[in-house]
Design goal:
mainly beta, 4-stranded antiparallel β-sheet, 24 strands, 42% strand
Length: 386
Amino acid sequence: MSHFPLDLATQLFILPNFPVKSLLRFRCLSKSFCSHIDSPDFIKKRLKTSMDTKTNLKLILPHGGGDDGPVDLYAADFDDGLKQVIKLNNPVTAPNRYTIICGSCDGLILLGTGNSDICEDYVVWNPTTRQSRKLPVCPITTLPGHKFFCGGLGYDSTTDDYKVVMMAAVSVADKGECCQVWIFNLRSNSWRMIQDVPPYNEIEYSHWRRYYTEINVIIESSFMGFFINGALYWQCFASGFFQIFGFDLASEVFITLPHYDGRVTSHNLMDLGGYLHTVNLSKLPETHEYYLFKRDDIGTGGNWVRVFKFEDQCGTGYLWVTPLAYSKEGDCVLISKYQEFFWYNIEKKTREMVELEGMPRPVKGKILSYVCWESLVSPDPGGHDI
C-alpha cells in the first residue's frame, strides 16, 4: 500500500480528471486513496469537473415493468457516443410492481415503486456506485384516498443536503380535496410536512392524471420534478390551463414563472444544459419551438428566451418528441422521438441517427429516457442505512 503515495499534485490536479469508474477502482489502492476519494470535498470537485467539461453523462433508459415483471434499467454513455447500452442493477426488483423515475440530481436518481397508480416506496439510487437507499415510508402514503401527483429530488446548498419533495392530493373533512407537501432530508433521515402549497388554488389533480391516461402516454413525465439552480419545477393543470411552478429548496417556498406568448404544453418540461426548457406548439404538430427560462440573480423573476426550432416533417406530435441534452459544442441537441434517437443540428437543421446497440425495443409506446451525471455522491450522506 505504501507504494501509492497520495501527494498534493495527485489530489488537486490528477484525480479529479479521471473517469468516475476509474476512481471507484482507485479506492482499492490504499487507505489514503480511499479516504480522499470518499471525502465530501473531492466528491463535489469531481462532480463540478464533469459539469464544467460536459463529461461523464449517462442516458438512462427504463424498459418493461408492470405485468411483464420488474422494470429493467439500461444506460448509455455520452462520452462513448451512445453506441452501446448496458443493463443496470435495478435496486427495485419486486415483481408486478411498476417503477417510475421521479427525479434526478447530481448523479442520484429517485425511484418510486408501487401498485396501480399509487407510489408506496421510494428509493434514492446512484447507478454509478450502485449504492441505493430505501426511504422510510412517507406519512402521506398512509392516508386513505391520497393521490400522489408529483415529486422530485434536489440539492439545498445552504444546508449541504439533498431533499426529496412529495406532493399529493388528500381528502380532508370539511375542506374537500387539498394538497399536502412533504419533504425528506437525506441527512436527518426524516419526513416533515410544510405549510406552503403550490401557488394555484384550483389544481385539477384528477384531470391531470386522466389527461395522461387517456392519451396513452406513460405518466412518469407528469411526476418528475426537474432540479435546476436550487429549485424543482413541475407543471400542473389549473384554471383551465397548464401552468409551470417551482419550489425553492433553500427557502422551501413555491414560486411561479411568468408566461411567454405561446402555448405551454404539459408534457415537454425539461432540463437542457442546466436551464429549464418548455415548448411552444403554435404550429402543432409540425413545428416545435423550444424556450429556456433564465432566472434573475435573486431568483424571484426571469424571462423566456427561444433557443431553437425543430421541424417534425412526419407530424408525430409533441408527445413523442423530447429533447434530452445538448452536445459538448452546443450546436446539436439529442432528441428522443417515439422509439428512435438522433442528434439534431440546430443551425443546419440536419439529423444524425443514434443506434443504441443492445437496447430491447418495447412492444408499443415511446422509449422513455432520462439524462443523469455519473458521480460519487452517496444516497446516504448521513450514514444511516448504507
